[in-house]
Amino acid sequence: MVSHGVVFYYGANNVIEPVLSVTIAILGYLVYRRERFATALSIGLAFGLFGLLHFVTLVGLAFSLQDLLIVTRTVAYLVVVFAWCVHGRPKVLTGNERPFTTFLT
Asked: 92: left (phi > 0), else alpha (psi -120 to 50), else beta?
């Protein structure tokens, strides 16, 4: 008998990678919301796309959506490159700024 349901592909990488990707996406949004640091938003967006791709793999749809996944992954990597090239200019701190690592406080 053939099952027509969705098959989940469990494994350490298939579970950990989407969790980490979504975590980075959320942190990127939080940093952007608090500090208006556009690089964090761009990288968060890219990792959100990576999380979506990991989810598609987890539910077993990666093979049927292979071409779309390649394009999406390429776009996500280009978003990271764009973020660092355009927004990622180093800023010299004068001592009065809060480091962006305190965004949760």
From this structure: beta
pTM for the whole structure:
0.70
| Residue 58, domain member (yes or no) | yes
**Residues 27-44 as b or e (16 or more Cβ within 10 Å = b):** bbeebbeebebebbbbbb
Angle, alpha carbons 5-22-58 (nearest 5°): 25
20 in any annotated domain: yes
Residue from 4, 12, 14 nearest 57 by CA: 14
**How does residue 1 score in pLDDT terms, banded at 50, 70 and 90?**
very low
Note down the domain range covering 33.
12-88
User: Are 25 and 51 in contact, with CB atoms under 8 Å apart?
Assistant: yes
Domain count, the chain: 1
SS3 call for 75: helix
Digit-coded pLDDT (tens) for 42-78: 999 999 999 999 888 888 888 889 999 999 999 999 9
